[in-house]
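Supplementary notes for students who missed Thursday's class. We covered one full example, reproduced here. Read the sequence, then the structure, then the short commentary at the end.
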Amino acid sequence: MLNKIVFVAACCFLPLCAHAEVLDKFPQIQGMWLHVALGVLFAGVALRIHWSVFVLALVYPALWFVSLLMEVHSFDLGPAIVAEAGQSYSMNAHAAAIVWLLGVVGLLIWKTRSKFFRTSTSA
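Structure (token representation):
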């Protein structure tokens, strides 16, 4: 009977002290920055082709960064990521998303200004 009680107690309390490795299921920091570079590059090429292709080129990186930030901020995975990788993982995820967004905005500004300067000098 004592063995059963010890077994039940062990089964109830041992999972609480288990440490789950969650970072191997998430992208590495280099992968985040690679998504930034390729996302801005493909968006720039798509913007040169047509604006609708540009919008389509924004869909995958936008969904990728949104899902990454949602996982970093989730109530169950967020603390596990911070415990395993530290605060730098979260900071890199936010910085990569912001740099990608600024790159896309910069491409739009570049396109509108170059179109504005091209039409104003030819008239």
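Commentary. Residues 87-122 form the longest helix (36 residues). The mean pLDDT is 87. If anything here is unclear, bring it to office hours.
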